[in-house]
Every structure is written in structure tokens, then in C-alpha cells.
Design brief:
mainly alpha, single chain, about 80 residues, 2 helices, about 10% strand, two-stranded antiparallel sheet
């Protein structure tokens, strides 16, 4: 496999992982809500209750956190 395809495959793997995480969180939160045990968090005046918000929040944190980490860690020392 040529080395030029490695970044593309890595990006596709990351996107697939993010999609799987978001789908799992959405499904789990909907199931809990339907069972009468909604997942609720309150931080200050902010209340997170809806399954769609939980899924979006989980994706957003990963999408913001990983690039921040990669920038902060700097270039590899190889």
C-alpha cells in the first residue's frame, strides 16, 4: 500500500469512529429516555437533557479536543 493512502485511511477511520460514538450515544440516550431514565446533566444554568444534544456534545468535544491536543503536542521528535 503506498504511503500516500495512509493519511486518507486514517482520516476515514477517525470519521468512522466519531460516527460510531455519536450513534451509540444517541441510541443509548434515546433508550434511557424511553425507559423513563433520561440522562440529565446540569452545569450552572445549562441543562443537557435531549439525546440529540448529548450526541452532538460528545462529537463536539472530540472534534475540538483532538485538534487542540495535536496542535499543543507539536511536531513528533522522530
Amino acid at each position: 500500500m503506498p504511503s500516500s493512502t495512509a493519511p486518507v485511511l486514517t482520516a476515514l477511520a477517525v470519521v468512522a469512529l466519531l460516527a460510531a460514538i455519536g450513534a451509540w450515544v444517541l441510541r443509548d440516550a434515546r433508550e434511557r429516555e424511553a425507559g423513563g431514565h433520561a440522562v440529565v446533566a446540569r452545569v450552572g444554568g445549562l441543562s443537557i437533557e435531549r439525546p440529540e444534544v448529548w450526541a452532538g456534545l460528545c462529537l463536539l468535544v472530540v472534534v475540538l479536543g483532538l485538534p487542540l491536543y495535536l496542535v499543543a503536542r507539536g511536531p513528533s521528535a522522530s
